[in-house]
Amino acid sequence: PGSAHLTLVQVTDVTPTVRRESLLRTRVDQMHHMARVDPLTGVGNRREFSETLDSEVRAAVRAGAPLGLLMIDIDHFKNYNDHYGHPAGDRCLRDVADLLRKVVRRPRDRLTRYGGEEFAVLLPGTPLEGVAEVGRELVSRMRMLDLPHQASLVSDRVTVSVGAASLTPARPEDAVTLVRHADEALYAAKGAGRDRLHVWLAPADRHGAAALSAEATQAHGPAVTPTCPPTHVPSHAHSIHQNAGSRQRLCCARRNPGSARADRWPVPLAGRPALWGGCRPNPERAPGAQPGGGL
User: Fold this and answer.
1) Angle at alpha carbon of residue 154, lines to 243 and 90, rounded to 5°
2) 9, 18, 36, 69 - which has most CB atoms within 10 Å?
3) What's CA 39's distance to the chain center, in Å?
4) Rounded to an integer, what distance in angstroms lies between the CA atom of residue 70 and that of residue 9?
5) pLDDT for 95-111, tens place per residue?
6) Is it the case that residue 171 has pLDDT exceeding 60?
7) What is the rounded CA–CA span in Å between residue 245 and residue 213?
């Protein structure tokens, strides 16, 4: 009885600790960002592509939604580096990346540098018709960018080849299938002369695509003779056929140059643009004439 009860209160200034933790979190976020961004172009790198592809495929599986992919390759870029030098090549890559950013506008769309002069664009919730629309815009706007390329075997300006694919994945492993389809379509675009878009069509879709293309061509004038050479392409990599006859060509209907974006595609399909392709009209130029031309 009568003994005193003592209480000890210790006050410590934790401001330096809070500041250190905040600085550490900032550094970690910066490292996370740097590990996923290409330092030259400022777009995502290959690691970012792989991780985003994995997460978007899983999201598409849960939602039962389509996932689109564009593979984009700058035509004859090695020749560009050899002719203009690597600093100019770096500037060209940055210019192309800046253009792609302007075309790929939706918040979930993901633009990445896949490697070297190749870029990839993931388009969640986008069927093949919409993926091809974006691809056509890329090919067209790249021509309008008007970057000189005297060493190109396609044109005197920088051009791109684009492969398009879309699927509704059933399991996470379908990510590999999507990349393979887009890569085969890109291979077909390059094999058919470059400076164009090709889409990957499943065998069951090709007859309907050919008929749709023929219908649109009849509604909008005569067929355009493509510049596609008779070259071998993978059996599953096809652009839409210009004619529905027995001899099918790897080519596509031209868009109306004077039309607005919303009216670019002659025949709507399920509320989305319906025609795809990037073949150029045959200029029937004399031997030795400068290659070029556009949609």
Assistant:
1) 130
2) 69
3) 20
4) 64
5) 999 999 999 989 999 99
6) yes
7) 11
> Do residues 127 and 134 touch, judged by C-beta distance below 8 A?
no
Torsion of CA 227, 207, 257, 229, to 10 degrees: -10
Q: For the chain, what percent of residues have pLDDT higher than 90?
A: 55
Tokens found for residue 227: 């510049």
Catalytic residue among 48, 56, 117, 133: 117
Q: How far apart are CA 196 and CA 188, in angstroms?
A: 10
Cβ–Cβ under 8 Å, residues 293 and 283? yes
Strand-strand pairing, 197-199 and 160-167:
parallel
Backbone angles phi, psi at 63, to 5 degrees: -90, -10
Q: 249: how many CB neighbours lie within 10 A of its CB? A: 18
- Contact between 149 and 78 under an 8 Å Cβ cutoff? The reply is no
The CA-based dihedral angle spanning residues 76, 129, 242, 289, taken in that order and rounded to the nearest 10 degrees: -20
Which helix (H) or strand (E) element contains residue 28? Answer: helix 15-34
Q: What pLDDT does residue 19 have?
A: 87
Give the list of residues 6+ apart from residue 96 with CB closer than 8 angstroms, or none: 74, 119, 142, 145, 158, 160
Rounded CA-CA distance 132/200 in Å is 10
| Residue 117 among the catalytic residues | yes
Side by side, which strands form the sheet with 118-124? 110-115, 118-124, 67-74, 160-167, 197-199
How does pLDDT run across 191-239, given as a tens digit for each residue? 999 999 999 987 766 554 443 333 332 222 222 222 233 333 333 444 4
Q: What are phi and psi of 154, to 5 degrees?
A: -110, -45
Tokens 């599953």 belong to 236
Cβ(147)–Cβ(88) below 8 Å: no
Residue 71's DSSP bridge partners are: 120, 163
Rounded CA separation 64/207 (Å): 25
DSSP for 139-153, written as a single string:
HHHHHHH--B-TT-S
